[in-house]
């Protein structure tokens, strides 16, 4: 038997730990061979495949990124090629199925977010045995308690907020830290609480500039002449929209967000005269060595995915239902986002200690 494994969508810390978990379990427990697909679905279309031995995965656990490479702009069902300088789209999914067969691959493991898993499900419907493994730093996949990559991202963001804290205090400034989180504010919420932010703006709670300013003045009256504001890239003012930085035409989610931090900063400076600075953490949050939590979760996901394959259970995704790793049908896992619930215990605790969400 041969497993093919690919990483798709944006990378995140822990991908290599999954690959290692898959290869070690497959080779050592079941004598199953594993091959890696280079650059996600692009490699399946273009037949870019490499062997993955125990030797190949030795020492990769602490490495960020993915040794296989990835892309978030390749969908074989809507594949583009540049022909005579023009972008031409076509469905090359049959070619992918053929490549899978010709390489002797019996089953595919797709590690990715919603977009990657949705494509995996389409291949499952075309007869390819598939198992999915969820990942994203945004932690916005409904079907699992948490995704690996998230813990490392909040660690990175928290460390940054800690550093911003000291300079904010020295200069009596309002300091804004923009973090990732398109539709879900998990990174902002967790790193904001952990980093001692005073205001946290998340996509789920549209904010009001007056409420943001009110909190800053309230702190001033209490002798605190600086404020830390953590903003998710998808946060928006009441009645307003998100700030789009660029359109990536062939991505599962074409709108790349970014810039709300500067908008909020400009507004605070204009409304209060308080000196304001903005730091956008960007892709720093996607990089670096995975935290122990992410390494363990990724390893468990990899091992469980192979266990499913050994039981001939396909069309499923592994998922954390604390403390167990379970599996659920891919169909249930996709297209369902996990946003921060407004009655979340995290929000409740944050409000109790005086953190403002810019809504009142
Ligand atoms: O989904 C993960 C994510 O990091 C988002 O938070 C962010 O909006 C997006 O990917 C950025 O994608 P890209 O790497 O294409 O800029």
Could you give the count of β-strands?
15
The total domain count is: 2
CATH topology (fold) name of the largest domain: Rossmann fold
Main sheet makeup: 7 strands, mixed
Shape: elongated
Helix content: 25-40%
CATH class group of the largest domain: Alpha Beta
Q: What fraction of residues sit in β-strands?
A: 15-25%
Q: From the 3D coordinates, which CATH architecture of the largest domain would you assign? A: 3-Layer(aba) Sandwich
Order of helices and strands: EHEHEHEEHEHEHEHEHEEEHEHEEHH
Number of helix segments?
12
Can you give a write-up of this model?
The structure is a single chain. By secondary structure, this protein is an alpha/beta fold. It has 2 domains: 2-148 and 290-322, Rossmann fold, CATH 3.40.50.450; 153-287 and 341-352, 3-Layer(aba) Sandwich (Rossmann fold). 38% of the residues lie in helices and 21% in strands. It has 12 helices and 15 strands. It has helices at 15-30, 41-45, 54-57, 93-102, 114-125, 150-171, 186-194, 209-221, 260-272, 292-310, 330-333, 345-352; strands at 2-7, 33-37, 49-51, 79-83, 86-90, 107-112, 130-134, 174-179, 199-201, 227-232, 244-247, 255-257, 276-280, 316-321, 324-329. The strands form 4 sheets. The protein has a 7-stranded mixed sheet with strand order 3-2-1-6-7-14-15, sandwiched between helices. A 4-stranded parallel sheet has the order 9-10-8-13, sandwiched between helices. It has a two-stranded antiparallel sheet with strand order 4-5. α1 (15-30) packs parallel to α10 (292-310) and α6 crosses α7 (186-194). The protein is elongated, with a radius of gyration of 22 Å. It starts with a strand and ends in an 8-residue tail after the last helix. The structure holds 6-O-phosphono-beta-D-fructofuranose.
